[in-house]
Amino acid sequence: MKQIEDISEFRSSPELVDKLYKHGILKVYKADSVILNENAHVRSIPIVIKGVMRVIRTEEDGREILLYYIKAGESCIMSFLGGLHNETSKVKVEIEDDAEILFLPVDKVSLFMKEHPEWLNYIFRSYHKRFEELLDTVNAIAFKKMDERLLALIQKKAELVKGNTIQITHEQLANELGTARAVVSRLLKQLEESGIVRLGRNKITLM
Predict the structure, then answer these.
(1) Same domain, 34 and 111
(2) Distance CA 31, CA 94 (A)
(3) Same domain, 185 and 83
(4) 136 in a structural domain
(5) For 46-59, what is each residue's pLDDT tens digit?
(6) What does the pLDDT look like over 141-163, one tens digit per residue?
């Protein structure tokens, strides 16, 4: 679990930490819960205390694409932007792994930007990190083959759970990659035949 006071920008400001705990609302979620839908109004900004969130964009034809993950101590810059500009969300945010999320009301987000430079630094760092991850996603879609993207996604999920085995269906992988289930199943079989992964019922193990 990542405590608010452990976040690098907040260590020098006990006053800011106290305000975050005072005004924030802590909620607990199970994996696959949806905490923000596309086109929903952003009323609060999530800070992950424990677990992992995934941020997804849905195309007009219903296909989804995974944009990035948000881990303990991090927040969603898309929520920041939507909340500050009173716009609806452009993304969907789901829980990847059982999580505890601290929600900070949008009005406090704006106020803390004026009162605490540490909070502003935290937002800038979040923006920089998310921008780099979005560039990686764009590069992967534009220049990498689907089998490379699939393996990279499996490796990323294994890294998040700190193990070699992930619990996931072919359909879920297909949704996050924005492709068809049949394509994922075929590529997974090829990876298994190459000795890179071992497939089980709703689980995949990296060899």
Answers:
(1) yes
(2) 8
(3) no
(4) no
(5) 999 999 999 998 87
(6) 888 899 999 999 999 989 888 88
